[in-house]
Amino acid sequence: MSANTETQSSSFDSIKWLVAIALLAAAVVGNYYYGEQVSVLYRAIGVVLLVIVAGVVAGLTDKGRRFRMFAKESRTEIRRVVWPSRQEATQTTIIVVVATALIALLLWGMDAILVRVVGFFTGLEF
């Protein structure tokens, strides 16, 4: 009985996805077709409404429900994060900039040395 219900739900989900895709296609085609005849404002409102309706239809599918649950859980998890203070963020940024500059200088020096060594052995001066 569970497999039958799952198959029926899956077929309804397929229909819902087809409807959502058809709505999005209608928004694109309608915007293109009425490009010269209808005001930009009305076309924009129509496209936005069709995209919202397509989003609602897609949200009613199983994947849409799982996405909403994921978004809610992510929002809850973000609230638990301990964000650094402004001073901590500034200090960390300074450390990263200084470390990057030191590594860049080290690589530049090693490159200069290697160019001279290769030039010495090959007889080519750069």
Structure description:
By secondary structure, this protein is mainly alpha-helical. Helices cover 86% and strands 0% of the residues. The chain is built from four helices and no strands. It has helices spanning 2-33, 40-59, 62-80, 86-122. Helix 1 (2-33) packs antiparallel against helix 2 (40-59). The protein starts with a helix and ends with a helix.
Topology:
Elements: H1 2-33, H2 40-59, H3 62-80, H4 86-122
Poorly predicted runs are: none
Work out the helix count.
4
How many β-strands, per DSSP?
A: 0
- Structural class of the secondary elements? mainly alpha
Gross morphology is elongated
Order of helices and strands: HHHH
Strand content: under 5%
- N- to C-terminal distance: 80 Å
Helix content: over 70%
The major β-sheet equals: none
